[in-house]
Amino acid sequence: FTIMPPSRDPDGQFTKNAKLGSHSLMLRKKLKDQKTVIDNKNANETMSNVVNNNNQNKRNENTISEPHASKNEEQKELIEESYEDIQNKRKQLPAYKCGNEILNIVRENQVVVIVGETGSGKTTQLPQILSKEYGKKIGITQPRRVAALSVATRVAQEMNVELGTLVGYTIRFEDKTTKDTRIKYMTDGILLRETLKDSMLYEYDCIIMDEAHERTLNTDVLLGFFKNLLAKRRDIKLIITSATMNASKFVQFFPNAPNYIIPGRTFPVTNIYTRFPVSDYLESAIQQCVKIHMSTPLNEDILIFMTGQEDVEMACGMLMEKLIAVYSSKYQEDPDKLQNEICIFPFYSTLPQDSQKQVFKPLNSTNKRKVIVSTNIAETSLTIDGIKHVIDCGYSKLKVYNPRIGLDSLQITPISQANAQQRSGRAGRTGPGTCYRLYTESTFLFEMYKETIPEIQRTNLSNVLLMLKSLGVQDVLSFPFIDPPPKVTLMTSLYELWSIGTLDNMGNLTKLGTQMAKFPLNPNLCKMLINSIALDCTEELLIIVSMLSIPNIFYRPKNAEAEADKERARFYVAGSDHITLLNVYSQWRANRYSSQWCKKHYIIYRSMQRANDIIGQLRSIMDSIVKGNMRKSRRYNSNKTNTILGIHDNNTFSSWKNVRKCIVSGYSYKNIGKRVGLNKYISLQNGMPLQLHPTSSLFGLGDLPPYVVYHELLLTTKEYITVVTAADPIWLVEYNLLFFNISCTDSAQQEIAENIQKLKEKKLKRLQDDKAMFNSNAIKELD
Ligand code: CDP
Ligand code: MG
C-alpha cells in the first residue's frame, strides 16, 4: 500500500470530497475515465446509468452488455420457498411480533414514526398489520422502483394472492394495481404525482412513507405536503419509517408524533478497517472476498457494496477470474470444485426482474457460498438473508448539483457514517458478523459526514417546483420543507422554469406549464411533446421522447464491440441522434416488433418493449391535452410501417425539419453547443468546451452544424455531449433559447448572423424586460 497525496476536488463542489484526501484515491485507475451522467433529465427517477468508458475513442457510450439474459445454471441451485416456510419466516420478524402494539399506537395518533433495523419487517409487515384495521387503501412509498416491485412481489407471496390484485405496485410507466388493490407499493414520485390529481388523497386512509431516512427529494416534498394535508384530513394516518435511529428530525417536524422503536435483534458486527487507504477499491474488494472465501465456512454468505452497475458487473467478472486463477493452482485435479462452492450474483436496480428475484432465494446446499455484489440498494431497501461478511468500498453514487455547469450529475461520492453503519449492519442479522471497510478508521471518524446531505439540498429543483406550483403552492419559498433548500438553488430553478416558458413574470404557472405538469417527464421532454402538436409531428416525438426515457437501447457485448458499433451506425440519421432513435424504433416496427431483429442489430429487446409501453402512456396524456379543441396532430396509418422514414427521403439532414425544430424547441439555454473547431463545441451558457461523444451520429462528420442542442452531458476527463441534434440558430431565437450575443467571424455564418440579428432586435428587448421584471419580482419574494 502506498499513501497517496490528497486528490483535488474536480468541480469545486462537495468540498468534503477534497478533504477525504487519499481516501478519494481509492477510486481505481479506471475511474479516471469514469463518466458522470449529467442528469439533464432531472426526472423523478434517474434513468441513466453511468457507464464505464475505457477508451474514449471507442463508440461505447450507453452501451452495456445484454443484461443477464439467462441464469439457468444458478436457478437450478436455488430453492423456491414453500408457503409454510414463508409464513414461518414471517412470524419470526420483529415487526410481525409487535403488530398489536403498532396497531394501538397508530389508532391513537395521526402520525407515527417507526424505527426498526433493516430486515425487521417494516416494509413487508406494516401494511399487512394495518390492513386489519384500515379498510380503504394503504399506500406505501419507496424511494426506489426496484424496492417497490420486489417488496410487492414478496407481500403477494406472503398473502398468497396474485401480484396486481389485492397487493400491487405502481412505478413510473408501470401500473400493476386494480381498483380492488388494498396494499399499494409505489415510488415516492408516484404518490407525489397522485397528489396532483387528488390533493386530498381520498383514495387512501393510510400512507406509509417507507425509508424516510433516505430523504429523497420526493420524500421531502411529500413530508411538507402532509404537513398541510393532515389538518384537512383528520381521518388519514401517516406512518413514517426509518432504518436509522436518528428519527428525531421527523419527530421534530411532526411534533405530536410518537416515535415507536421495533425491538431489534441484531448481533454484533466487527468492523475491520484498512491500515492505509487502498489505491483501488475494486481490486481490494476482490482480494478480500477471495481471502474470506478461502478461510471461512461455505454457509457464510458475502455481500460486497460497490457504487454502480458498471462496478458491480466488473467486480463479478474480476472475482470469477481471480477465483479461477486461485483454484487452478490449488485444486489442479478438480477444476469443478469452484462451481460447486460459490455462486456470484450482481444486484442493481436496472437488473432484469427475474435475475433480481434469484438473489433472495436460498441456495439448495449449505455447502455452497453466495456472494452478492450490489449497489447501495442492498443497504436498507432490500434485505438479503444469510449475510455474514460485508465488504464496503466506502462510496456510493449520488445525484449532485454541479454549479459549474448548472446541472445535476450522478457522482461517485464518499458515503456517510450513517451509510457505513447500515452496510455493516447487513452482516449481523442472523448472528455475529464481520464488515471489512476498505478505508481507514480515521477516514471513517474524521472525514465522513455523519449523515448524507438530503437530496433537496444538493439537486436542481425545477421538477419539484413545477409540481408545487401545479399543486397551487404560490409561495414556494415558504413551503414547509423539513430542511429548506438553499435559496440560491430555489431561485436558479425558478429562473429556469421561467426561461422555458413554464412560469410567467409573476412566477405563476403558464398554460404551457400547466400542461407540462401532466407528464411524468422532465420539463424539456414535456415541452417538446407539447410543441409537437403545433409542428404536426406528435407521433415522431412520442417515439423519440419514449426512447429517451429508457437508459439503454443498444448493447455492446465484450467480444463483439466492433460488430455492435457497426450495427449501431447503420441507424444513424445525419445530424440527429434523437432522430436516430426514432429510426431504430420505426425499423423495429417495420420488422413486426421482432426480438430476433433486435438481437441481430444489438438492440435490447426489453428496452424496445418498454418504449412501446411508454409511447402508449404518453399518448393518452397527449390526447387529454389535445382534447378536440386544439387541432389534432397527424396520425399516420400505423399499418404503413415505413411511413416515418419513408416520407423523409434518404434521411438527409434537411428532410427532418419539423421534427428537428420540435426537438430544439424543448431545450433551454443550458443545452446549446456552438461549434468552435473539429468535433468541438462550447456551451453557450458558460463557454465550457464540449466534445461530441464518439457514439453520436455527428461524430467525425466533416461538416458539422454550427449549433447543436444536446440531451446529456457526460463528465469524464473531458465534457462530452451525447444525444445531439443540429439546430438552426433561427430556431434558437424563435424558441427563446438564446439570451446571448452571437458574434460571427466565419463568412459562411454571416447570413445566419444577420438574420438572427434582425430577429433578435425585435425579441431581445422584450426578453430583457421580461427578465428584469422576473428578477425584480423574485427578489421581492426573497426579501
Ligand atoms: O423493511 P425492513 O428492512 O424492516 O424489512 P423487510 O423488507 O420487510 O424484510 C423482512 C424480511 O422479508 C427479510 O427477512 C427479507 O429477507 C424478506 N424479504 C424477502 O425475502 N424478499 C423480498 N423481496 C423482501 C423481503
Ligand atoms: Mg424496508
Automatic annotation (TrEMBL):
GO biological-process terms attached to the record: mRNA splicing, via spliceosome; protein-RNA complex organization; ribonucleoprotein complex biogenesis
Region span, Disordered: 47-77
Annotated EC: 3.6.4.13
Compartments (UniProt record): Nucleus
Chain intervals with Low complexity compositional bias: 47-57
An annotated Gene Ontology molecular function: ATP binding
Transmembrane regions listed in the UniProt entry: none
Major location category of this protein: nucleus
Keywords: ATP-binding, Helicase, Hydrolase, mRNA processing, mRNA splicing, Nucleotide-binding, Nucleus
Catalytic activity: ATP + H2O = ADP + phosphate + H(+)
Source organism per UniProt: Saccharomycodes ludwigii
Domain called Helicase C-terminal: residue spans: 277-472
GO cellular component: spliceosomal complex
Annotated family: Belongs to the DEAD box helicase family. DEAH subfamily. PRP16 sub-subfamily.
Biased composition (Basic and acidic residues): 68-77
Highest rank taxon of the organism: Eukaryota
Residue intervals of the Helicase ATP-binding domain: 103-263
Protein's name according to its UniProt entry: Pre-mRNA-splicing factor ATP-dependent RNA helicase PRP16
